[in-house]
């Protein structure tokens, strides 16, 4: 019997808008049973442009759906709809295609539901409330449980950090405290996230071996009240990030900006030397920004340091939804974020805020995109990588984010790029 599905955010909507973006951007792994099912459907060669439906990918070390020369999946029709879905129904599609953009996270005795904001409909908050997708999510949960071949109820909670395990109940108590700092619509998202960073900085050195249950809840209520009162209200009251903070941040941005596949690849696709030179320029932070993503306009590192000014209510709402969904679903730690511990995962998520703001400034260069559209595009690009780009899962990246947090640079970056 599948575990129940919980934590479907009522403040977030989604329905497929048939934009076809995911069918152009991702290489979808295909299991042996899925391969056999698709081959049994006897697709005429002409309907697939004369291409095989499935190919072996040496990088994925797996079979995957094939793509046409224009980057689209061979099953994507001219109406931007999946041919498998149209002819045989949703159940005939590979599991990865069926589930996207939902992310199901095992949390002890239930599944939590997250969302990929790389999907334009997620960013636009378009469609039905997520709670109305509960039946589909229960089906997806059963598929995942069957695919894993074991009891997901035995999935252990992520450690708070190395050598510091915690029970599921207490982990969720900490998560509730963090969410309490995010729901206050009377203050900017930038301030809410600095308060979360302050809570993480205060709690990370502590050990909760004896403070559990209701005692932990009471303790966290005191901490939430303290960081709410003590965190500076204005970003201008926070010291600018130091040289080391900016340097590490730009190197992380080089990973978030890089796009090698899909319809909008950047210059990194040209080869290893191009990637090395681009990484060196990001480390220096002077002059033109290498266009690692095909949608990045030509601009400079100096321009990306200029304040963008206040965000409108729609942009604030998008950022609030993004962080609340990621945190409520626990999508930021454990198996959905390279098995990072709770605090490491939370800090890596907090770093996406300055990453989004930095990239939004780049996208708004010379009015190419209005500010709100630039921010929405930045959210999609950053979330396309968060938890999925293997470069972000490397040990060096964990060290880099932890260094920023330990030096107090994380809160400074949030304030600086949130201006």
Could you characterize what this model shows?
The mean pLDDT is 94. By secondary structure, this protein is mainly alpha-helical. 41% of the residues are buried. β6 and β7 (111-115) form a beta hairpin. The strands form 3 sheets. A 3-stranded mixed sheet has the order 1-7-6. A 3-stranded antiparallel sheet has the order 3-5-4. The protein is globular, with a radius of gyration of 22 Å. The protein contains 17 helices and 8 strands. It starts with a strand and ends with a helix. α10 (243-257) packs antiparallel against α11. The chain has helices at 21-25, 32-40, 83-88, 95-99, 120-124, 134-148, 168-180, 189-203, 213-230, 243-257, 272-284, 313-328, 342-350, 352-363, 371-385, 395-406, 409-417, and strands at residues 5-6, 13-14, 29-30, 54-57, 62-65, 102-106, 111-115, 128-129. The chain has 3 domains: 1-14 and 100-155, no CATH class; 27-98, no CATH class; 156-419, no CATH class.
- Find the count of extended strands (DSSP E, 2+ residues): 8
Q: In order across it, which strands form the biggest sheet?
A: 1-7-6
Count of alpha and pi helical runs: 17
Q: Provide the structure class.
A: mainly alpha
Task: Give the overall form.
Answer: globular
Beta-strand portion reads: 5-15%
Number of domains: 3
Query: H/E series, N to C?
Result: EEHEHEEHHEEHEHHHHHHHHHHHH
Low-confidence stretches: none
Biggest sheet record: 3 strands, mixed
Give the end-to-end Cα distance, rounded to a whole number of Å: 49 Å
| Proportion of helical residues | 40-55%
Report the mean per-residue pLDDT as an integer: 94
Rg, Å, rounded: 22 Å
